[in-house]
Amino acid sequence: MKKVKVKALGNMFSIFGNRGNVWTDTAHAYQSGRGNLCGTPALSSNIAAMVGMEEVGCPECLKQIAISGYVQVPLNR
Ligand SMILES: [Zn+2]
Fold first, then answer.
1. What is the 76 CA–ligand 1 centroid distance (Å)?
2. Mean pLDDT score across all residues of the chain
3. What range defines the domain where residue 56 resides?
4. Does residue 76 form part of some domain?
5. 14 bridge partner residues
6. How far away, in angstroms, is 13 Cα from ligand 1 center?
7. Which residues of the chain have pLDDT under 70?
8. What pLDDT is recorded for position 56?
């Protein structure tokens, strides 16, 4: 699935990920007042933000972004 820059999601979103997410490039999209879009609890230190990750790589978060239309993902033609 195509990764999405968290900046493209607007001010309500930030990047969230633990050490494992950083290593595997699967950072979550964290929505202010709601949590990670995929429902994964944001309990650990936010390593992804600390290292300056910019792209959401969690497949379930990306799915929710696409379904909810937070970002227009260009279709491959
Ligand atoms: Zn996620």
1. 24
2. 92
3. 4-68
4. no
5. 30
6. 12
7. 72-77
8. 97
How far apart are the CA of 56 and the centre of ligand 1, in A? 8
Span from the CA of 20 to the centroid of ligand 1 (angstroms): 12
| Beta-carbon contacts of residue 27 (< 8 Å; ≥ 6 apart) | 6, 15, 16, 17, 21, 48, 53, 55, 56, 57, 58
Identify the pLDDT of residue 6.
96
Rounded distance from Cα 62 to ligand 1 centre (Å): 7
pTM of the model as a whole: 0.90
Residue 12 lies in a domain: yes
Cα of 18 from ligand 1 centre, angstroms: 11
Q: How many domains does the chain have?
A: 1
Q: Residue 36 domain-assigned? A: yes
Tokens standing for residue 61: 């978060």
